């Protein structure tokens, strides 16, 4: 028996829709750290435990790798030679990387000018065909479904149920780390696949069925239970300018600095409502300002650099702790969905500028003198 970790399909193959003959396409994704926030609870003077599941440490820097290893593996198993997705950035980065690994073609549709630089560089670098559209993610999602109707393309957006199957494994890892489910699980909601996948995973961990699972035929031979005894309350956060779950209706012109979740017509609409309702949870919204403040706060106080869309987990949690809907004594896990390096422009724009001085010892000592803690 080797202890070398080889990705989430091999780790959880008895809980995933794969057979011994399935040709696994993996970059050793998953197994991400669950990091306890040690400074933030003190800073906000709340007696709570907050644990961050840092999905930014996946191979392409976001949680999308969990879904993509499954989606591309099943595409290869079915003989596919090309995959396609619409994306706000991270899905395209993951699709491009796993397609490169599998040796198949990859087409990505992205909204012109509205994806973070790191993500664009990934899709380009891995050799996918990058198609910028004069439209938003929702237009791209519609177009992908239209072209895949006639062309031999395998869609790897989260309407592909294998994506959610891969992404559910995050819940297994959390339960194994804690020995139980947390009281609350908080996370960003964009296209709404991830909250649904979390809920599927937690439900399977305790052995309960859920309306969040889209298509039980593709699910594992339903091997469930035995990992935990109760499910968490699920709380989903949306950017105020792109908050269909708060409005109770689709949003036609979504806008937010958190471009990853600039989505107005989420495809997993029904599944996410099921996760919220079955768990007794709720949705809340945050302004762009609150999102950026939380991103900076996390980076400054805990040394964890996540992208703006991920920081909404923290922004929303701070609000819900403030208004005491999440009470003292609670244990909360928050998913930090993507790495801060994905979006260097937004990070630089909100940080203090570097000093520029002559290359002399006096100049350096002057800056140190002004900035040394007293
Ligand atoms: C960092 O890449 O939809 O609610 O096309 O990149 O499952 O959509 C990204 C979504 C949260 C929202 N955090 O997850 C895409 C895309 C980050 C993200 C979300 C996304 P879903």
Q: State the helicity in percent bands.
A: 40-55%
Poorly predicted regions: none
Gyration radius, rounded: 21 Å
Main sheet: strand order: 1-2-10-7-8-9
The separation of the N and C termini measures 54 Å
Major beta sheet summary: 6 strands, mixed
Mean pLDDT: 95
Q: Give the number of DSSP strands.
A: 10
Shape: globular
Structural class: alpha/beta
Strand portion, in percent?
Answer: 5-15%
* SS field, number of helical segments: 15
Order of helices and strands: HEHEHEHEHEHEHHEHEHHEHHEHH
Which distinct ligands sit in these coordinates?
ligand AN7
Describe what this molecule looks like in 3D:
It is a single chain. Helix content is 40%, strand content 14%. It is built from 15 helices and ten strands. The chain has a six-stranded mixed beta sheet, with helices on both faces. A four-stranded parallel beta sheet has the order 5-4-3-6. Helix 9 links the parallel strand 7 and strand 8. The longest helix is centred in the C-terminal third of the chain and has 15 residues. It is globular. It binds ligand AN7. Ligand AN7 binds next to helix 4, helix 9 and helix 13.
Labels describing this entry:
15 helices; 14% strand; binds ligand AN7
Brief rundown of the structure:
The chain is an alpha/beta fold and 374 residues long. Helices cover 40% and strands 14% of the residues.
């Amino acid at each position: 028996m080797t202890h070398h970790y080889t990705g989430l399909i091999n780790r959880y193959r008895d809980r995933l829709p794969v057979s011994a003959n399935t040709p696994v396409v993996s970059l050793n994704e998953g197994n991400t750290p669950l990091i306890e926030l040690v400074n933030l609870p003190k800073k906000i003077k709340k007696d709570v435990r907050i644990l961050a599941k840092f999905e930014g440490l996946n191979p392409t820097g976001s949680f999308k790798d969990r879904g993509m290893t499954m989606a591309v593996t099943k595409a290869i198993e079915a003989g596919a030679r090309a995959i396609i997705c619409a994306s706000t950035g991270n899905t395209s980065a993951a699709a491009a990387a796993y397609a490169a690994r599998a040796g198949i073609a990859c087409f990505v549709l992205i909204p012109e000018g509205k994806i973070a630089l790191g993500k664009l560089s990934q899709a380009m670098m891995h050799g996918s065909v990058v198609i910028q559209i004069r439209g938003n993610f929702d237009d791209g999602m519609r177009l992908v479904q239209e072209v895949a109707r006639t062309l031999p393309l395998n869609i790897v957006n989260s309407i592909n149920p294998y994506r959610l199957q891969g992404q559910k494994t995050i819940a297994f890892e959390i339960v194994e780390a804690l020995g139980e489910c947390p009281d609350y699980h908080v996370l960003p909601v964009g296209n709404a696949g991830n909250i649904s996948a979390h809920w599927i995973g937690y439900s399977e961990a305790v052995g309960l069925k859920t309306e969040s699972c889209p298509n039980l035929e593709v699910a594992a031979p339903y091997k469930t239970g035995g990992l935990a005894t109760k499910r968490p309350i699920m709380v989903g956060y949306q950017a105020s300018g792109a908050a269909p779950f708060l409005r109770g209706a689709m949003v036609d012109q979504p806008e937010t600095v958190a471009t990853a979740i600039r989505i107005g017509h989420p495809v997993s609409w029904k599944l996410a409502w099921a996760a919220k309702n079955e768990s007794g949870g709720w949705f809340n919204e945050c302004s762009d300002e609150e999102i950026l403040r939380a991103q900076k706060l996390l980076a400054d106080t805990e040394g964890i650099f996540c992208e703006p869309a991920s920081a909404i987990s923290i922004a929303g949690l701070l609000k819900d702790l403030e208004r005491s809907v999440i009470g003292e004594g609670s244990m909360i896990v928050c998913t930090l969905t993507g790495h801060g390096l994905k979006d260097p422009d937004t990070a630089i724009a909100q940080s203090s500028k570097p000093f520029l001085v002559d290359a002399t010892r006096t100049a350096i000592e002057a800056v140190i003198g002004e900035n040394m803690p007293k």
